[in-house]
Amino acid sequence: MADDAYLFLLPDRHPRLGTALSAVGALEGTQTPAVHGWLQAHDASDSSELVRILPAEAEASIPKDAERLPIPLSEEEALRVRQECAPQSVTDMEGELLEYRETTQDWAALVHRALAAGIPTPRIARLTGLDPQDIARLTV
Fold first, then answer.
1. What is the pLDDT along the chain (140 residues), one digit of tens a residue?
2. Which pTM does this prediction carry?
3. Distances 132 to 47, 107, 123 between C-alpha atoms, Å
4. Which of 43, 70, 85 is the last residue of a domain?
5. Residues 69, 8 contacting (CB under 8 angstroms)
6. Residues 82, 83, 89, CA angle at the centre, nearest 5°?
7. Cα distance from N-terminal residue to C-terminal residue, the chain
8. Which of 89, 99, 108, 109 is spaced 20 to 30 A from 56 at the CA atom?
């Protein structure tokens, strides 16, 4: 194990720092009894959005009141953590927002096609995350 990172619990109402532990993928250092005990002691799950990870060099940005735990990382794991924690460029973020707009822009036509294909409203709502009442308004 070459580098360290810090697991920490993001305090309530604090801006997102680092990345969620679950976004990094499996890390050998998180499979230890110490990490499992730390998570249990804080009634947290390794899949929680509040369980965050930052590379050791970014420790100063962890909130002072946050519970933290150092964990060892291999060189490959440290690289993954750094990549996941790197800020996304504005251009990339704007591109994602445009893609979202394009995929949701014609949602009504998609719903009409699904209804015409015989897919029931509750199933469309479950698959799309749309409000069933919004879907029902299209059929009126």
1. 445 999 999 887 788 888 999 999 889 989 999 999 999 999 999 899 899 999 999 999 998 889 999 999 998 999 899 988 888 787 777 777 677 667 776 778 888 888 888 888 888 888 888 889 988 888 76
2. 0.62
3. 29, 13, 9
4. 85
5. yes
6. 120
7. 62
8. 89
